[in-house]
Design a protein that fits this description.
Helix content of chain A is 38%, strand content 28%. Chain A is of the alpha/beta class and 250 residues long. With 482 residues, chain B is an alpha/beta fold. Chain B folds into 2 domains: 23-233 and 244-256 and 270-281, no CATH class; 316-482, no CATH class. Residues 1-6, 8-16, 94-99 and 117-125 of chain B have low confidence and may be disordered. The chains are: A alpha/beta (250), B alpha/beta (482).
């Protein structure tokens, strides 16, 4: 589904990604781990198409199509979803209104009519039940005054509504207590199926106890320096990242 | 990555022109330019006014001659040459005893272009409309239906002739002739406008609306609106305005007076979309307007305005809360883009006991524009337990525009409770990217963010207007992200 080939990317002239190779197939869960500053969030932003990031070399293919020339919204229309590490606030715009706009804009891009209000409401009801979200929450302004846990849960709710092909969860576990973590992880697991794929970006192993990855990659200094199965995550948890740094240095 | 950049947006903006910028070639009778006593007399004569009205105008003119144009507002412009403007212009085909069937077909074609179908008006069930082109009222709809309830809705010229007792009693009581420079000018030369009277205890069954249009070049528009809500009555009033795109600056100096007698309520909504000038700041309407309402006991006046047009705006719809327990409200969205300048706000004058006022102002600045909120909350010594809540929020786009807040508070009674909140924010690239990532393109994202920001005010507009206002906000800000 997603194929990244020798990807180099920079922001404001500063090289951050220095040759990433990654292949994610439908039905798979990949975890990307690594120390601070290794380029994890940059990778997520580059895949999603954030403007400030410049691709200097390499390719990002989604279902075989090079998406580098596409704007962020066009990538979203093709099924790329990013759960933000720091979701932004949009005062005065309710979660429901935001989702309605997002869904209808995506439908418009595909040449479809707006989703009938009745279907929209039904979908909102189903997805909010699935994720144990109080529906009062949906009429609040997007992320305004939300707790850390509410923000992340809202991200997963949006993922549920948009039904992406490829979901990238950027540090979704940060700022969550154990209960919130469980709810968010359960949500992701419920949305997971053989036709979609998830990339989990995280610092810690604990989220991976709940969302079990098929593959774990270690990102360091803008490169994937080690790949393995979920055991690699345990090893990292135990030993930290220093041994990887040494291995790479050697 | 190929992106929809700011430059692309700017380019697109240049091609999106002011939609109402056309000029209709109507046969017009226009007075020679310049202003003197003879012109004032001539206007009055043309309108076949009674002598008291002519005298009233002359008194205003005398006062105006002694007055100086105000300079305290946070706006900069080349002062109009008041001797270079024509003070009266009227499409000649207008007959004072007109029915819609007699209206000049060119005029009808113009309304159509403006999106007002007068014929449709007949069928639409909840808006009665008065249309003012240049200096005169050209069509008033639904007169008969309203007449059955005793509601008077007509042009002010007609009202001066048909209901002199009402006009004489109330004209100039809220905005005196000498109130300020532009109000004095308006009092001397106003050529038309709307008049509305709602009898005791009557709830006006439909929205009343006036649509203003400046068509002729080199003319000023000076309309006068007088709305009287008698005891226990209710009316909701809407006004909209557009003008052709011209390189010269055109002057619009209106006066609106509202009188809400005991237990009456007036809701006055404006969507102001005068020509704002082009992207380089050339042309555009100078909008110097005095709007004020008087509340007697238990009365309520709500001003709601969406200001997107004009090159320079100077406007402070105000409430004099004279009666005990009276309520004043001001809800405003002011958008400035390119080189537009707006200095707008309100005055809440608390005279009666237990009077309450609410001010919600949302300023949105883009391009190289300057947007100022200026408001006065005044509590007099006998206004026990007066309360005010003010909220002024500014939203900035880009780095070249300005937002300013000038709140004035004068409290002479210790029991007063006054709250003031103000925020300034910027549409962030993070917000835009967040929307983009959810499949919402940049234009739509801005519209969403701006509508969210303005929601509290948009919610106060009557339904039909709210939709129009939302669209207008989007058009006014197209291509303005920075």
């Amino acid at each position: 589904m997603l194929e990244i080939k020798d990807l180099h990317a920079s922001v404001e002239g500063k090289g951050i990604l220095r040759g990433i190779n990654l292949e994610v197939k439908a039905g798979e869960v990949h975890a990307i781990m690594g120390p601070n500053g290794s380029g994890k969030s940059t990778l997520a932003s580059v895949i999603a198409g954030k403007e400030e990031y410049e691709v200097d070399k390499g390719q990002i293919l989604l279902d075989g199509e090079d998406i580098e020339e596409l704007a962020a919204e066009e990538r979203a229309h093709k099924g790329v979803f990013l759960s933000f590490q720091y979701p932004v606030e949009i005062p005065g715009v309710s979660v429901t209104n935001f989702m309605k706009t997002a869904i209808n804009e995506t439908r418009k891009a595909k040449g479809l009519e707006d989703m009938p209000a009745k279907d929209m409401l039904k979908m909102i009801r189903e997805k909010s039940e699935l994720l144990e979200i109080d529906r009062k929450f949906l009429s609040r302004s997007l992320n305004e005054g939300f707790s850390g846990g509410e923000k992340k849960r809202n991200e997963i709710f949006q993922m549920a509504m948009l039904e992406p092909k490829l979901a990238i969860l950027d540090e979704t576990d940060s700022g969550l207590d154990i209960d919130a973590l469980r709810i968010v992880a359960n949500g992701v697991n419920k949305l997971k199926n053989k036709d979609n794929a998830v990339i989990v970006i995280t610092h810690y192993q604990r989220l991976l106890d709940h969302i079990v990855p098929d593959f774990v990659h270690v990102l360091y200094n803008g490169r994937i320096v080690k790949s393995g199965t979920k055991e690699l995550a345990h090893e990292l948890e135990e030993k930290g990242y220093d041994w990887i740094k040494e291995e790479v240095g050697a | 990555m190929s992106k929809y950049t700011e430059d692309d947006l700017r380019e697109e903006l240049k091609t999106k022109e002011y939609e109402y910028g056309f000029y209709t070639d109507l046969k017009s009778e226009t007075f020679p330019i310049g202003l003197n006593e003879d012109i004032v007399r001539a206007i009055s004569k043309k309108k076949e006014e009674p002598e008291w009205m002519t005298e009233w105008r002359l008194e205003a003119f005398k006062a105006w001659k002694e007055m100086a144009e105000p300079e305290w507002a946070n706006v900069h412009y080349k002062k109009p040459d008041f001797q270079a403007i024509a003070y009266y212009s009227a499409p000649v085909a207008v007959d004072p005893n007109k029915t819609l069937d007699d209206v000049d077909p060119d005029l009808l074609a113009m309304y159509k272009k403006l999106g007002i179908s007068v014929d449709e008006q007949k069928k639409m069930n909840n808006i009665a409309m008065d249309i003012v082109v240049d200096s005169v009222s050209v069509a008033t709809t639904f007169k008969k239906t309203l007449g059955e309830k005793g509601i008077i809705f007509m042009s002010i010229s007609e009202a001066i002739k048909e209901h002199p007792e009402l006009v004489k009693k109330y004209l100039g009581t809220v905005v005196p002739q000498k109130d300020n420079f532009y109000a004095a000018l308006n009092s001397a030369v106003f050529s038309d406008g709307s008049f509305c009277y709602i009898p005791k205890g009557v709830r006006c069954p439909m929205e009343l609306s006036t649509y203003f249009r400046i068509n002729q070049a080199g003319t000023g528009q000076f309309e006068r609106t007088l709305v009287i809500a008698d005891e226990g009555s209710y009316v909701s009033y809407l006004e909209g305005c557009t003008a052709p795109s011209r390189d010269e600056n055109q002057l619009h100096a209106a006066v609106v007076e509202l009188i809400a007698l005991d237990d009456a309520e007036i809701k006055y909504s404006t969507v102001q979309n005068w020509y704002p000038g082009n992207a380089e700041g050339k042309g555009g309407v100078y909008n110097f307007v005095t709007k004020r309402g008087l509340c007697e006991t238990n009365a309520k006046i709500s001003w709601t305005q969406v200001e997107t047009g004009s090159a320079v705006t100077w406007k402070y719809p105000s409430c004099v809360l004279k009666g005990d327990n009276s309520v004043g409200e001001f809800y405003s969205i002011a958008v400035t883009n390119n080189y537009q300048q707006a200095d707008t706000g309100t005055k809440m004058i608390h005279l009666g006991k237990n009077t309450k006022s609410t001010i919600i102002s949302k300023g949105i600045s883009a391009g190289k524009s300057q947007n100022s909120y200026r408001g006065l909350v005044q509590i007099s010594s006998r206004a026990d337990n007066a309360r005010n809540f003010s909220q002024c929020d500014s939203l900035l786009m880009g780095n070249e525009c300005g937002a300013h807040t000038f709140p004035y508070i004068e409290a002479k009674n210790k029991s007063a409770q006054i709250e003031h909140e103000a925020t300034t924010s910027k549409i962030g690239e993070d917000q835009i990217f967040y929307c983009n990532q959810r499949g919402i393109d940049t234009e739509k994202a801005i519209a969403l963010i701006v509508n969210g920001f303005s929601k509290e005010v948009l919610n106060k507009l009557p339904m039909e207007f709210a939709v129009e206002a939302q669209k207008l906000l989007e058009i006014s800000l197209e291509g303005s992200v920075g």
